[in-house]
Write a structure and sequence with these properties.
The chain is of the alpha+beta class. It has helices spanning about 1-15, 20-25, 75-80, 90-100, 105-120; strands spanning about 40-45, 50-55, 60-65, 70-75, 85-90, 125. Strand 2 and strand 3 form a beta hairpin. The longest helix has 13 residues, at about 1-15.
Length: about 130
């Protein structure tokens, strides 16, 4: 089981977006060593002033609150953003979402969502 998870992480690592790689390089975090494996990791966390909260009217509904605005999240988006606590690399976060969903979530969809969330200012990259 651990071997399958490692293979998923490696495949996801290979498919990460250029914007994330560029962010790591801009922050001075050279992500690859001579063997092609990550030497310094970038993590993902919610941006300052952004938080997740449960909608009081609907207990199973999660809302993203930021700068006086609110965005109602679907279950998948909430699951991804709940893992953005700064403790996981982007590769690990994507692998955890795919693995936790019973592989019903696509790694490409999760990466695309993370890119969109970063462009909207909901999440930021941090050095682990």
């Amino acid at each position: 089981m651990r071997q399958r998870k490692l293979r998923i992480v490696r495949r996801i690592s290979a498919s990460l977006s250029d914007s994330w790689n560029a962010t790591c390089l801009r922050l001075g975090m050279d992500r690859r060593n001579d063997n092609g494996y990550s030497r310094v990791k970038c993590g993902v966390e919610l941006a300052s002033g952004v938080r997740l909260t449960v909608d009081t009217g609907q207990p199973d509904s999660v809302v993203l609150v930021f700068a006086g605005a609110q965005v109602q999240l679907n279950r998948s988006a909430a699951a991804v953003l709940e893992l953005c606590d700064g403790s996981r690399s982007r590769e690990r976060l994507v692998a955890d979402v795919v693995w936790g969903s019973g592989r019903s979530a696509s790694a490409a969809d999760v990466v695309e969502f993370l890119d969109a969330a970063q462009k909207r200012g909901w999440i930021v990259d941090v050095q682990l």
